[in-house]
Design goal:
With 401 residues, the protein is an alpha+beta fold. The protein folds into two domains: 276 residues, FAD/NAD(P)-binding domain, CATH 3.50.50.60; 88 residues, D-Amino Acid Oxidase, Chain A, domain 2 (2-Layer Sandwich). It is 40% helix and 28% strand. The chain has 13 helices and 20 strands. The two termini are 31 Å apart. Bound molecules: flavin-adenine dinucleotide. Flavin-adenine dinucleotide (FAD) binds next to strand 2, strand 12 and helix 9.
Length: 401
């Protein structure tokens, strides 16, 4: 959805092909902590105004060592003001986010929505990509922005191989009310089975991402609400006071995936079609939104040069622009997750030492904050304030030339 809207913003004619968003959005219990660049993209796509009231500002991120190791690492609080920002970003519930993007796509005259149960077949020809839906409709496009998830058939059609790995972990995602204010601080408890994270929502409510071994996570999801509340309050160690109403709980198996190329043969990979990482440090959707904004830049540049928007130059530029950003996040999140799961004493000591270093050495802390928030590499135009207007001005100049 974000890729379709971003491409339409730079003047491309887009077919948005897939199952209708309202069906999938209805069951998504997740929230996404989105950093400032992602929020600017949502502003430029014209959906932020309606999302702000259901989202909560993120002023800080606290990390608590709850691994129960011999040497407990010190608590670290990263605050946005340490790097001269008012906020890190906002925590946005996935369901209204998807719905706002869907409604914006329906309003956009450059986007044609093709509702289908699924795309069944994709064929890449030298001059065009051809997709066939389950209902038998055939669609042709110069470029496929493949946002069809981790089992992407568009990626397979382009012959892009992947490396996948398993974490033997699952995440429970839900939201809950509580009696004490969160003060705009997201808290990550680092536990041996994975992180347990509470992220602010408006008022006295928070989103929860609780990573556990799959069998334990399944048992936790199956508990009745009172049973789950007892365990949740224990895990929170009084941080948010008494726990009130708890939303629907859903389980997400965790895995890792990276593609050997992010663009090739008229296909560019967007979101989990190109990269899947565990929910640590809130990187997944932020990366996916950067993919969407970047493909818009690549296509805008090709249109300005009068080139084929799905040609090898475009897919190569896209791959080059996304590679470092995506691969550096995959590596950082993977290392952090594995140091939690490791039972080796030297690994725990190293993690503890790292936390001490971050706490006591200001420049390192600031560098880490910047690294977590900003893309590695140039910021795409639609993530700049006024980025949509910049694209529109370029398009008007080209039209009048
Ligand atoms: C518990 C949890 C918490 C998270 N929290 C955060 C966070 O705080 N911040 C953050 O940045 N990220 C977070 N993430 C990551 C984020 O949720 C994902 O990066 C994001 O949802 C991936 O979206 P996607 O659109 O790439 O993939 P998907 O959501 O899998 O979407 C793929 C789409 O493709 C469609 N599709 C698939 N196959 C076909 C086909 N053949 N034909 C047509 N359509 C098809 C599907 O119907 C679906 O709509 C979290 C993830 C988890 C699991």
């Amino acid at each position: 959805l974000a890729a379709a809207l971003s491409l339409a913003k730079v003047g491309a004619e887009v077919a948005l092909v897939g199952p209708p968003t309202p069906v999938a959005a209805a069951t998504d219990t997740r929230t996404a902590a989105l950093f400032n660049g992602s929020i600017t993209l949502l502003e430029n796509l014209g959906v932020w105004r309606e999302l702000e009231p259901v989202s909560a500002a993120l002023k800080g991120i606290r990390i608590i060592d709850d691994t129960g190791g011999l040497l407990r690492a010190p608590e670290v609080l990263f605050e946005a003001r340490e790097v001269g920002e008012r906020l890190f970003g906002w925590n946005v519930p996935n369901a209204p986010l998807a719905m706002a993007l869907w409604e914006a796509a329906k309003r956009d005259k450059r986007i044609t929505i093709v509702e289908t149960a699924r795309v069944e077949h994709v064929e890449i020809r030298p001059d065009v990509a051809v997709a066939r839906t389950a209902e038998g409709e055939e669609l042709r496009a110069k470029l496929v922005a493949a946002a069809d998830g981790r089992r992407s058939i568009c990626r397979a059609a382009a012959g892009i191989a992947t490396t996948t790995w398993d974490y033997d972990q699952a995440a429970i995602a839900t939201r809950f009310e509580h009696s004490r204010p969160h003060d705009g601080i997201s808290t990550e408890f680092h536990r041996k089975s994975g992180p347990f994270t509470v992220v602010p929502l408006p008022g006295l409510e928070s989103g929860l991402v609780w990573v556990e071994r799959p069998a334990i996570a399944k048992r936790l999801v199956e508990l009745d609400e009172d049973g789950f509340r007892v365990v949740l309050e224990t895990r929170l160690q009084g941080l948010l006071g008494r726990v009130g109403a708890i939303g629907e709980r859903r389980l997400f198996p965790l895995m890792g995936l990276t593609a050997e190329a992010y663009g090739r043969s008229r296909v560019v990979l967007i979101g989990e079609a190109g990269h899947v990482i565990p929910p640590i440090g809130a990187q997944g959707l932020n990366l996916g939104l950067r993919d969407a904004a970047t493909v818009a830049d690549c296509v805008a540049e090709a249109m300005a040069r009068g080139e084929d928007v799905g040609g090898p130059e475009v897919t190569r530029h896209y791959h080059e622009r996304r590679k470092v950003d995506v691969e550096s996040r995959i590596m950082a999140v993977d290392i952090l997750n594995r140091t939690l799961l490791s039972t080796l004493l030297p690994v725990s000591l190293l993690r503890g030492f790292g936390m001490h270093l971050i706490r006591s050495f200001g420049p390192l802390k600031k560098a880490l904050i910047r690294q977590g928030l900003e893309p590695s590499g140039p910021r795409p135009t639609l993530m700049e304030s006024g980025g949509a207007a910049m694209h529109m001005a370029t398009e008007q100049m080209q039209a009048s030339a």
